TrEMBL record:
<dbReference type="GO" id="GO:0043529">
    <property type="term" value="C:GET complex"/>
</dbReference>
<keyword id="KW-0809">Transit peptide</keyword>
<dbReference type="Pfam" id="PF02374">
    <property type="entry name" value="ArsA_ATPase"/>
</dbReference>
<dbReference type="GO" id="GO:0016887">
    <property type="term" value="F:ATP hydrolysis activity"/>
</dbReference>
<dbReference type="InterPro" id="IPR027417">
    <property type="entry name" value="P-loop_NTPase"/>
</dbReference>
<comment type="similarity">
    <text>Belongs to the arsA ATPase family.</text>
</comment>
<protein>
    <submittedName>
        <fullName>ATPase ASNA1 homolog 2</fullName>
    </submittedName>
</protein>
<dbReference type="GO" id="GO:0071816">
    <property type="term" value="P:tail-anchored membrane protein insertion into ER membrane"/>
</dbReference>
<dbReference type="InterPro" id="IPR025723">
    <property type="entry name" value="ArsA/GET3_ATPase-like"/>
</dbReference>
<feature type="region of interest" description="Disordered">
    <location>
        <begin position="81"/>
        <end position="100"/>
    </location>
</feature>
<keyword id="KW-0547">Nucleotide-binding</keyword>
<keyword id="KW-0378">Hydrolase</keyword>
<dbReference type="InterPro" id="IPR016300">
    <property type="entry name" value="ATPase_ArsA/GET3"/>
</dbReference>
<feature type="domain" description="ArsA/GET3 Anion-transporting ATPase-like">
    <location>
        <begin position="8"/>
        <end position="330"/>
    </location>
</feature>
<dbReference type="GO" id="GO:0005524">
    <property type="term" value="F:ATP binding"/>
</dbReference>
<keyword id="KW-0067">ATP-binding</keyword>
């Protein structure tokens, strides 16, 4: 995972509460320790990267992580900040006219004209479903397209619990299909009104609108191809040795394969080490975990993955030194 010099994307996900953030943060520290400039980004609605690194990473911007030699930056996606930026941009450009500019940049200028004096900024007062995922997709676009991020050879995603993650991974396909339908509809409308628009010299705006939609569609295709590229992208499933967690991990693995997302590793976190004492609780707990771990070999989805176990540590994994300690054990 550290030897390849090409840029690599790693996504860590699974059931809530299994330690995805600690695993993602320790992997990012591992990459940085081995000389890879790295970005770790949290895409979930409830962030804990700040807690994991024991450093304030809030604000929705890249923040340098202290205590590592190679560049390591962290980002917690902030939907509220993104919405405030849209509202600010709208007000800066003159209220609804500013919103029209935003819609026009998405190829929806003609539709904005038809909405007339409707207060479009009011739409920003309500956070739509999947806003976190949409912003995460926009960040992926930045990483892929912007020269500013060329120096980073490793991008690690600390994804949200399973449901959010599957929406994130399916969003590029959904948007691609939606944009395609919008383009077909726009062409039908354009052909029906071309004579009228040409009389008023308004034909060019339609072409510009179509071009913008096509460009947005191309960007979505880049993200979709990135998610499916086994040479540059890998999804790592994180779970714990309980029946419920492993069942969800199995369903997640099946869904990832259905979406053609490369998945090869299964991290089983918080495995209780064998105890030399007469602790009855420890003995019973370990037996329970071993029974759950036996499920992996019998599961048609999980059995094909490379299983990596991480012990239940006797200290809280918080801060770069602790993450490095965890990473040296987990990412050997």
């Amino acid at each position: 995972m550290v030897s390849d010099t090409r840029r690599k994307y790693y996504m860590l996900g699974g059931k809530g509460g299994v330690g995805k953030t600690s695993c993602a943060a320790s992997l990012a520290v591992k990459f940085a320790t081995h000389g890879h400039p790295c970005i770790v980004i949290s895409t979930g609605p409830a962030h804990s990267l700040s807690d994991s690194f024991d450093q304030d990473l809030t604000g929705g911007m890249l923040v340098p992580v202290q205590g590592v030699e190679s560049p390591l930056f962290a980002l917690e996606v902030n939907p509220e900040k993104a919405r405030d930026e849209l509202r600010s941009s709208s007000q800066k450009h003159g209220g609804s006219g500013g919103m029209k500019n935003i819609m026009d940049s998405l190829g929806l200028g003609m539709q904005a004209d038809q909405l007339g004096d409707l207060e479009l900024e009011e739409l920003l007062d309500t956070s739509p479903p999947d806003l976190d995922e949409a912003i995460a997709i926009s960040k992926v676009m930045e990483f892929v397209e912007s020269q500013e991020f060329n120096k980073f050879s490793r991008i690690v995603f600390d994804t949200a619990p399973t449901g959010h993650t599957l929406r994130l991974l399916s969003l590029p396909d959904f948007l691609d299909a939606s944009i395609g339908k919008m383009m077909k509809l726009e062409k039908k409308i354009a052909s029906a009104t071309s004579a009228i628009k040409s009389a008023f010299g308004a034909g060019e705006s339609e072409e510009n609108s179509s071009n913008k939609l096509e460009k947005l569609r191309e960007r979505m295709a880049k993200v979709r191809d990135l998610f499916h590229d086994s040479e540059t992208t890998e999804f790592v499933i994180v779970t714990i040795p309980t029946v419920m967690a492993l069942r969800e991990a199995s369903r997640l693995c099946a869904s990832l394969r259905k979406e053609n997302v490369p998945v090869r590793k299964l991290i089983v976190n918080q495995v209780l080490p064998e105890s030399a004492s007469n602790c009855k609780f420890c003995s019973m707990k370990r037996k329970d975990q071993m029974r759950a771990l036996d499920m992996i070999k019998k599961d048609s989805e999980l059995a094909t993955l490379t299983e990596v176990q991480s012990p239940l540590f006797d200290i809280e994994i918080r801060g770069v030194p602790a993450l490095k300690f965890m990473g040296d054990i987990l990412w050997r």
